[in-house]
């Protein structure tokens, strides 16, 4: 498996977990528990890194577009939460 394939697979897994559990993710961001906040911020940081992968899509990388659905779901969940 090529390095780019491994990166795409890992980012795909991270984004799928965050997208599937976006309510828990938002709750953890707002939590008073520092451990829950840290986990949520680490997950958010990973997704931001994926969104900002260097190179030109789809020539140099193919993972940055995986985040579009997550950002949409997060926005919808945030609006529902408020």
Q: In a few lines, what is going on in this structure?
A:
The protein has 82 residues and is mostly helical. It has four helices and no strands.
Order of helices and strands: HHHH
Terminal CA distance = 43 Å
Radius of gyration: 14 Å
What are the low-pLDDT stretches, counting only 5+ consecutive residues below 50? none
The coarse overall form would be elongated
Percent helix: over 70%
The structural class is: mainly alpha
Helical region count?
4
InterPro entries: ARM-like
Task: Give the helix/strand layout.
Blueprint lengths: L2 H18 L1 H9 L3 H18 L15 H15 L1
Helix pairs in contact: 1-3, 1-4, 2-3
Q: How is this structure best described in words?
A:
This protein has one domain. Helices cover 73% and strands 0% of the residues. The chain has four helices and no strands. The termini are far apart. With 82 residues, it is mainly alpha-helical.
Which keywords apply here?
82 residues; ARM-like; 4 helices; mainly alpha
């Amino acid at each position: 498996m090529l390095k780019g394939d491994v990166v795409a697979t890992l980012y795909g897994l991270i984004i799928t977990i965050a997208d599937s559990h976006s309510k828990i993710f938002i709750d953890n961001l707002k939590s008073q528990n520092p451990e829950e906040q840290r986990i949520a911020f680490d997950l958010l940081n990973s997704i931001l890194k994926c969104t900002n992968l260097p190179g030109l899509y789809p020539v140099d990388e193919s993972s940055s577009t995986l985040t579009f659905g997550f950002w949409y779901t997060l926005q919808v969940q945030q609006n529902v939460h408020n």
